[in-house]
Amino acid sequence: MNTFYKWNVIGQIRTALLDGINFGVTILAETGAMDRFVCGVLAFALLGCDAAGSGFRGVEPVTRHVDGSRFTLRFRGDLVEAIRTSPEMLPKFEAVARKAARAAEAERAGCETAWVEGDPAMMLLGLACYGGKAPRKPKRRNMLSCDFQTLTGGNLYPAGTVECSKL
């Protein structure tokens, strides 16, 4: 097949695809359905909210409700991944961690939560079962907290200074 012909066909397919997308977006905008379309795309994007984290893929999830909070739990030995899937307004980590610990302990009889790491949305818990030792806490990644000190320039190419510190 001639290279020019191949690129020409690809260009025609690309043009037809872009024309179809343009036509679809125009129809959505003219019929007032654009809001529903955007909401649908956002809802589809959020479907992975309780997807398993690294090390917990393939593990069967368990759903637990504790004091109005809903958690998806995944167990890998004495490690538990707890993902809060219920909406809450500005949850405090300590309160959510206590609920997640109670959910994990209710699922595994004879286990006590030794430690909790993470944030109010996703936590990793270490369980000490039947008087045994809890697993070691995972190493924390180096994290930085950065603040813009000055910001100058136009909208296209702004310039400034950033100050970062290790957490």
UniProtKB/TrEMBL annotation:
This is Lipoprotein. It comes from Thalassococcus lentus. The lineage of its organism: Bacteria, Pseudomonadati, Pseudomonadota, Alphaproteobacteria, Rhodobacterales.
